[in-house]
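Researcher: Please translate sequence to structure tokens.
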Amino acid sequence: MSDINKFSPAQVVDMVRKGTFVPNMYLSNVALAYFQADEDFISRRMFPSIPVALSKSHYYIFDKDDLTRLAVGKKPSMGSVTPGIIGKSDDTYSCDAYQVITGIDQIEATDYIRTSVPGSVNPLRSKAMWIAEQLKLFTDYQWARSFFVPDKWGTVLQGVGSTPGEGEFWQFDNSNSDPIEQFNQLRVVMRLLGLRFPNRICFGVNAWAKLKTNPAILERIVSGGSTPNPANVTKNVVAQLFDLEEVLVGSAVINTAAVGQPGKPEFIVPENDALLVYAPSGPAIDVPSAGYTFSWDMGLGTNPAVQTFQGPPATHTEFAEGMISYDMKVTSPDLGIYMKDCVSAPPEDEEEG
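Model: Translation complete:
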């Protein structure tokens, strides 16, 4: 029974007038909010982020061919060898600012604050959480558009369901597929072209699901399981099988429908594809990377802060704002291998009638 029955009508009116009455309006220990888990977002985990002081500037690129071409020779008597050439070029980055704003009606918020509603529906807290979610979604969306596309990379492979030709590979859900052998070959390809072995991979959700049930994968780990502790294909296990540091799965979902239209959820990362790369754990001047995120510190980089500001006096509105500023760039195309259609397309539904 509600605590309101403890008080007389006059006492209740007096408490409402003073703003001390706390009705049992909502549960304080549960709320339904479809915020996605942090591990679903991958844009800050695949490539290093470089803090930059200027929103636009240049960076050097040392010539890979010159670094691998021998310039050592036998010194001639009373002479010298021809000086070696270390060529370099440059490229640019340009950080754009991205912003999201929402409003808080101060009159409406007064009732929530005075009744000590649970934090899940507190206007200030919920708006801040919504802004953070928006920026994470947008960053992953921009990441996929910048990196998870085949035409950005030096090597692009096509998954097929019949005997692979040049530039093709067996799809993961084909009985002939042996992903471990396939990735062993891709390691050699990247080492030859980009002078590094790959260390990270991102799978679309369908590609990952089929990889986990691939017979060649299961055969490698099934002997390590038991009835109480069955073998389980995890990201860490696959990382060890492929000799990688990290396996990521692009599982974040975005609603592409316009406001007022039925929801149209889609995976941000193409669900049937995969991207194999080399990227260091942090930025460096003497190590290449498949990609970088240049984060402008004046625009809060890719770690946004939420701030509030007052609207026009007569509106009694408080606005909450989040802003980020960055540029996502492929910096070494030879250090990325894009794999298209890692799984076969589902059969089309037969028409009825």
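Researcher: Any highlights?
Model: Residues 88 and 190 are 21 Å apart (CA to CA).
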